[in-house]
Amino acid sequence: MEEPTSHRDAFPIVGIGASAGGLAAFEAFFSGMPADTEPGMAFVLVQHLAPDHKSILTDLIRRYTRMQAFEVEDGMPVRINCAYIIPPNFDMAFLNGALQLLKPVAPHGQRMPIDFFFRSLAQDQHERAIGVVLSGTGSDGTLGLRSIKGEGGMVMAQNPESTEYDGMPRSAIATGLVDYELPPTEMPAQLIAYATHAFGKPPRPATPTPRVESALKKIFVHLRAQTGHDFSQYKPSTIQRRIERRMAVHQLVSMDSYAKFVQQTPEEVDALFRDMLIGVTNFFRDPEAFKALEGQVIPKLFAGKGADDAIRVWVPGCSTGEEAYSLAILLAERQEALKQCFDVQVFATDIDSHAVAVARVGIYPASIAADLTPERLARFFTIEPGGGAYRVHKSIRDLLVFAEQNVIKDPPFSKLDLISCRNLLIYLDGELQKKLIPLFHYAMNPGRYLFLGTSETVSEFGGLFATLDRKQKIFQRKEDFLGSRRAGLGRLLQPMMVVDAATPQTVGKQPTASKKLPLRELTEQALLQQVVQAGVLVNAQGDIFYLHGRTGMYLEPAPGESGPNNILKMAREGLRNDLTIALHKAMATGDTVCCQGLRVKTNGEFTAVNLTVRPVAVAPACTEPGRSTALPQPRLYLVILEPTQEPVIQGPVGKPSLEEPTTVDDADARIAGLKQELRAKEEYLQTANEELETSNEELKSSNEEMQSVNEELQSTNEELETSKEELQSVNEELATVNAELQTKVADLSRAINDMSNLLAGTGIATVFVDHQVRLLRFTPAATKIINLIQSDIGRPVGHIVSNLPGYGTLIADIKAVLDTLIPREAEVQTAEGRWYLMRILPYRTMDNVIEGAVLTFVDITTARKLQDVLWSNEERLRVVLQSTTITLSNQDVGLRYTWIHNPNLGLKGEQIIGKTDADLLSVEDAAVLTALKQQVLDSGKGLRQKVLMTVDGKALVYDLTIEPLRDAAGSVVGLTCASLDVTGQQGGEPPAEIHQHEEKPC
To answer: Is the whole model's pTM more than 0.70, yes or no?
Structure first.
């Protein structure tokens, strides 16, 4: 057996699925193959086949293609320019370039072999997988196409007009993922053109060229402008692959040309947006992962919970909802096992409004049966009429709230017990992932769980999440003691607006040139104005926010327990006291404080430093509702440290500076004097420090009392802040629920309005009753038939007087319909003489439950009157025809008889209907009559003429009258002929000329 094709020689694999009517579709498909060129791909045909009958599909394909066609054997490798046909009673998968046959597990009639093959083809061939759905019933192939598109492949569907059975193509088209809708004969040419553009060029470089990057940015701009979503931070490889696939669909060769095409074609922006958001999802995707979640996480969510406690789950990037419904099913099963009801809330969000709409409806193709156990399918789904789809049961649907949300920029849900974000992070670049993981940590309750996709991880945020199951990507939230989550939450907080303190501001007026700057830009902006080598941004307490330059000469870590870095504790010898005084002075006065010539000890040597403490004003960031003044922000201070070129020795305050010594003795004396003066100052400072410590001791007790009060106030403030956050989160959730309810109310109002206008527009009187034949609702037209008023609602219909004197079995007929569920009809007449066609039908709900009966009354008074008139006219005509010897007939424009009354002929009417004169008469007589009748048809004018005809060998003279027969528009649609035997009567010879007379009404 040949080895599978290597990746180096890879070629597209086209999977073609069909069901009923598939033979004709396959025949048309291969008939459209070019006769002079090879397609450059392989074709694998999957059809619904009877398990006990030999397939003739292989022989059929060989007739219509010069390619080699094989019925698949287990392990058969796939070669280029060959066709492979699935054998009966097998499922087929694609693995490493070869076809594998498997015995089906599902019973015949419930198998989805096309979906099964398409999924394996997508997983093995990725962007080289192509799926084609042809004629067939049901929905097999729909979920498989989603997998192919998710891997970057291309999909086609037969246009419904060319199918014998359009169920499968329509189901595929309804997903919005189909690239081409074509008749089968046109598909091969389009396939070859697509493959040429998609795979007939060298692979793209790993790093995009500047020209490609420029085109990509333009495409991102158009996407953001039209959809409101920014894809520039998604993984470049994924984005470029999706764009190149769209280029191949439209056969565009360069990224620049596609960018122009997007600009000129708004519809392509929507198509590209859908391709970007293709979610490869299905119920209980990765069964082992969901099994681990069911065993390790779901029971813990309910542990210790009361009936009034909420269990909250968030599914960001829910796509069409399969994953969210899977989680809801697990939660429902756990509730049933505990035999207790809980307040379960599953929030499912996505940026794709179309996908959210599909998820809200909760209707999925019948092929989901392959992903669900028969027990779950029976318990949590109901089959739709026709059997082509399943609807999620209302008990599961009520657990979920679907909403359109962008997890990257919109506020998250909070107080969550489980976040299931599977296969979303793999599409985002590293920076976005670093924002989302701390965001998820913030949104979760302590000790709760994060469920990621098989290729995703929490990366460097191991301090936020502990690994519960490394293989199945289940993580548990840890407490954050180091504040690592601040980076992720920064986007939720409004940045501070920073302005220069030196900028003059008008009292009561907001600065107009304010800019929102992060702390780094704030610090560097202030430093650039001073042109300094080292600087530190601190608050009034000395806590360090940002360090600029090399500050090791002036600061060192303080010994003892490590906490927030504080500049007063880290200041080296010679800097601390003056820095403390300068910082307090700057805080008190709001002015810049300078200290020159400080001597800072570094590594045993002293360095002369100029110290500057400069306030940095912070503009208000927000304003409280209902108040005109903005909330004040804490002031920041920039500590600037600049070494001086020459050390400066400061003398006593108020004394002149020392002069240059003239002798050695003078210098020694002056040094001794300076030392003595310095010693005296140190003693003075020591005394002052002791006095200050004494004062501090006295104030300590007061401080402790104030601190106790402050702690209580701080605790209260923290509780208020927590309550505020909770209220904000609840408000966001209520807004989400409200938006969904508004959508439902709008849909319901629209449906009610449509129904009301429909009933009013038709004029059909309608009455709704329940099982006890009590009145529920009625339309205004029903009051003419039964004496109804609004207060009659709830009363038995038998207690209400009707206007149907001749019909006394109304109640009995309603009860009979409710008992047998067989509709009834009757024609009834009101006291005013009007006739109605009454129908009694069972009232069925969406769940196929009988909740009463519906009575409709259609006014047929006009029809009854017309019926009576027609009967009277027919009776008169019957009497006239029986008493006359004139032969009457009607003929169409082809001179075929459509009706005849011939009392004098031996032929019966059914022997003449449909025939012409040429079929009944001699050649000469038929020619005469045909000429006369054709003349009337052409001229539109009747004529009367005596004609001589031979009947049974006798020459007879007939008085013939021919009139045109017209329709309502006045067009001639036939003839009416009357003939009377006048042989032997006076003037019974045919005239020499034909005399026309004016047209008469028929």
So the answer is: no
